[in-house]
Structures are given as structure tokens and as C-alpha cells.
Amino acid sequence: MKEFLISLLDFFGLAFWIEIITEVPRCTYYFGPFLSRREAEALKAGYIEDIQQEGATGITVSIKRCKPAKLTIDEEDLAASAGKVVPIFSVQS
Length: 93
Hints:
Elements: H1 2-11, E1 16-22, E2 27-34, H2 37-53, E3 60-65, E4 72-73, H3 75-81
Antiparallel strand pairs: 1-2, 1-3, 2-4
């Protein structure tokens, strides 16, 4: 039942995701989806540790409701999109 609810929230862009941005390498990583902010908060340390073990530095972490198109966005992708993730309910011009 929990998986169904998470899938439903994710479909509508309402699930919580952990967004980790690193300076070196220049990447954005998304981990999730999660049912609640508290669940994401409880698990974020493990994801940070994994990325640090890979040698990443300059780490910024946030938890947000979004619907990432890709789970890993590398430097090439960032250059093409200017590093923006558009919230599901935003208006694009």
C-alpha cells in the first residue's frame, strides 16, 4: 500500500526527493521518492556518505517536492539546462 501511495504522489510531483548538488564533480543527484519529508531526512545521511566516499566535494543538500526527469544530472546536462529543475506546478515562459 505504501508503494502505491508513493507512486501516486510521485506521478503528481508531490513526493519528496533528496537533491544533492556537488561542485566536484559538477553533478546533481536525486534520491527518492519518499512519502514524507521526515522519511527523506532520516535517510539523507546515507546518501551523502555514499557520495563523499566517491570523492565528491562541495556538497549541498535539500529536500523538495519535485519530479526529476533524470536521477543524475552531470556537467554536460547542467550546461544544457543551466541546472534548473522546474517544479511540476510552475508556469514556464
